[in-house]
Specification:
Largest sheet: 9 strands, mixed
CATH superfamily of the largest domain: Endonuclease Chain A
Distance between the termini: 28 Å
Strand order of the largest sheet: 1-10-17-16-15-11-12-13-18
CATH architecture of the largest domain: 2-Layer Sandwich
Number of helices: 19
Structural class: alpha/beta
Radius of gyration: 25 Å
Strand content: 15-25%
Length: about 525
Amino acid sequence: MKLLKKLFSRFFFVALTIVVLFALEFAGMIAVVWFLSALIVSKFPGTEVYITVGVNAVAWIIVIVTVLHAANRDMVPETKIPWILCIIAFNVFGVALYVTFSSRRPSRRRRRLFAELSKEIRPYEKEEVDRDTLRAEMGQWASVSEALSTVNPAAIVHGGNKTEYFPSGESFFARLKEDLEGAEKYIFLEYFILEKGVFWNALLDILERKAKEGVEVRVMYDDIGNMGRVRANYHKKLQKMGIECVKFNPFVPVVTNAHNNRDHRKIAVIDGKVAYTGGINLADEYINATHPFGHWKDTAVRIEGSAVRNFVLLFLGLYGITRRAGVEVKPYLPETYEFFEGEGYVQPFGDGPSPLYSRHLSEDVYINILNGAKKYVYITTPYLIIDYRMREALVLAAQRGVDVRVVTPHIPDKKIAFALTRSNYMALIRAGVHVYEYTPGFIHAKSFLADGEVGVVGTVNLDYRSFLFHFEDAVFMYKTAALEGLKADFESIFESSALQTEEDAKRNVVFRWICEIAKIFAPLF
């Protein structure tokens, strides 16, 4: 029954469509070559051998040129080796795969829209705290903040914001409902996944009622991320309820790598005064109403104050790209914000594929935290599929005497991703990194905490998809109340997790070799 359900799912038909379209495209190319060869032979009999040699020579010239292009291309080094292997192994077929799928760049139209919307939003990207003040108060951590805002001016630093940490989807659910009920002007929701059930149905009841009361409600969800969860035209159902709803990057039957650029963000904004982000999607497993993978451990933060402006701009920017229209910003920004004494600094930021974002910002932030830590760095991630840069940062921090701990799931949601995650254990353990598995089930939280002073909570996994392909968001925090909650939660997580040893990491030889081969091609998917 499960097999039949998968075979008739929208995801299966989308995958099948891409395969068929690519096969037709490649077959068409071969047919053109065959037709031209046959035409030449008909006019010049006896030239078959010369044509065969010529075609093979041209094919190998194309292969060599493509290999050189891949070797010298400005791309993540780990992606070069698998593409070169693919090109050499499959000849012109490998070249076709490379040309079609190697670019992670969004479409020209999306790049143009992003540039235009960035210009519209830029006047509202005003620094709240001068850098001299940051350096004086944050010490060595000011460099992490400065590096982020230098590359991404939209990542504005804010002081005096109230922060609240949620150690579970259940606590987040209860607080979010309260804020949605109190909405007076507008509600923005941007989520990778939403699915009918206890969680989403409860929120939808509130959204529908608020829309009828005159509150502007906008919802944006990822199309491919929701395949198998909602119908293809689900956004139209919400529109009939009075909710402005769009699907991000909807699937179209075209062979392109643009389908890899997914909206993995989780953002809720209420009246421009309150915002949420974290790992929690709007589906029942995130609040443990269902248990597909044991206990689901997830986290989120709530921000109240001027930093909410960053999330408003993030939402409006991507919403405008999706609607292919301009954005009106001013009506959604409050004239004044409440200032909360005794709080540190928060810096919400977005990330996404190049060239929309010039660097892999999230990975930069994580590495800079590891480089700056003196006592400890605690990390949770559902997937540990890392590049050389991230692995070396983890190893160097551990070898410097920093207590580096990484918590991953014990029960997987994706078996291949789980195998790749475990394949990274040995090198880290031998270097002194402490790797834990969350034994009650699946940990989906994406968080960093260093020395009890700085931390990050957001949507960014330690994997290639988050670093290279997805649109992501997170908040960098310095000495906030939320970090106190995060530290207490980490202590609880360690008690519920099993420390992995070299013996655990060995497992069987066949498994390790399969993982090593899979790791080569991991950056491509």
